[in-house]
Amino acid sequence: MKSINVAVVGFGNVGRAFVKTLALKRKTLSEKYGININVVAIADSKGMVIKPSGLDDYEMLKLCEVPKSGIHMFGSYAKQGVDIAEIYDKAAPNIHVELTPANYATGEPGYTNIVFALKRGAHVVTANKAPLVLYYREIVEEARIRRLMIKFRATVMGGTPFLEMLSSMKSHDIEKVEGILNATTNYILTEMHENLLDFEQALRKAQALGIAEADPSLDIEGFDAAAKLVIISYVIGKPINISSIYRESVAQISLKDVLDAVKQGHVIKYVAALDAQKMVASVKIEKVPRDNVFAQINGTLNGVRIKSDATELFFIGRGGGRIETAHTVLDDVIEVALRGSA
Ligand code: HSE
Questions:
Q1: Is 292's pLDDT higher than 70?
Q2: Range of 202's domain?
Q3: Which of 181, 182, 230, 232 best tests ligand 1's pocket when mutated (most atoms within 8 Å of CB)?
Q4: For labelling, which of 78, 258, 283, 336 has a CA lying 20 to 30 Å from the CA of 1?
Q5: ω before 52 within 30° of 0 (cis)?
Q6: Domain identity same for 232 and 266
Q7: pLDDT per residue as tens digits for the range 85-113
Q8: Cβ atoms within 10 A of the Cβ of 213, count?
């Protein structure tokens, strides 16, 4: 049996769903794959829990019920304040799971945490897009020189292993990647179309589902989808800068716009597109004919078309969603546990 120690940094919607999923599945995982995944530390924005011998399933489930930013109140293993170095000094995790919220101004605290973890010899799994969008080359290089793995498949189509498929298309010349990459705004537009909610009502429902970013303007202003295009661009080896991506705000869409479009046989969609030949990218509001495949991608689903010199593929699957994203993060952790050298 191979034992792997995991530190979880960031304990919001996805962090909690990850810890809960792991608590419920790790017995099965150890039977299926011969790996024992221990959570030795969890940090939220205000405190940490460190237990070098690993939290038991009951403790993990109880921790998921603690109020947000409240794990410093969790009994004898808990303390106030976050000090990532202390986690590494006391519990020496093999895998660092970085689930802090995206901050596109600085990439922090994710970037510093990821680099710190790599420098201390831990493989990294992250769902935080911002450090990759701002420092992809630095992070990948830091991992490469240390022969460590950096896995981030939850950053794009969080509930669907899309990035793995895309990165496996190594012989292809990818010409275009376009689609619905943001679950929150797709859900909002679907609620406006199907239930005639206004924008604010639909946004509140999306937030209640836990799919919106901690700062929902990142979804609404197209930043989240643009960030995903940047990560896609790195994966296909044609990097673009986020500042070069043209973005429209979905907040300008009114219920009247939605109904007017429907009368003309259209559906309003928020489409992210990367033209890898012209090296231009955009996140735009588009009126899509009702029989177009993008018009069928509703709710929290994402859908992406990949056009290469050899073929055209279409992926449909969950984008956001705490449980789905948590499973994708866990898939990365399992893969690192099975393949990584730690
Ligand atoms: N806020 C993001 C979305 C979460 O709505 O798609 C998944 O990246």
A1: yes
A2: 162-319
A3: 182
A4: 78
A5: no
A6: yes
A7: 999 999 999 999 999 999 999 999 999 99
A8: 20
- Please write the tens of the pLDDT for every residue from 37-80: 999 999 999 999 999 999 999 999 999 999 999 999 988 899 99
Strands (E), the chain: 2-9, 35-43, 47-50, 78-80, 95-98, 123-126, 150-151, 174-180, 246-247, 266-275, 280-289, 301-308, 312-318
Q: Pick the residue whose CA is nearest to atom 4 on ligand 1.
A: 320
CATH number of the domain that 229 lies in? Answer: 3.30.360.10
Report the pLDDT value the prediction gives residue 1, as an integer from 0 to 100: 87
Same domain (yes/no): 52, 85: yes
Is there a single domain that holds both residue 265 and residue 211? yes
Q: What is the CATH number of the domain that holds 44?
A: 3.40.50.720
Q: Which two tokens stand for residue 281?
A: 């990218």
Pocket perturbation via mutation, ligand 1, pick of 103, 188, 224 by most ligand atoms within 8 A of CB = 224
263 and 171 in a common domain: yes
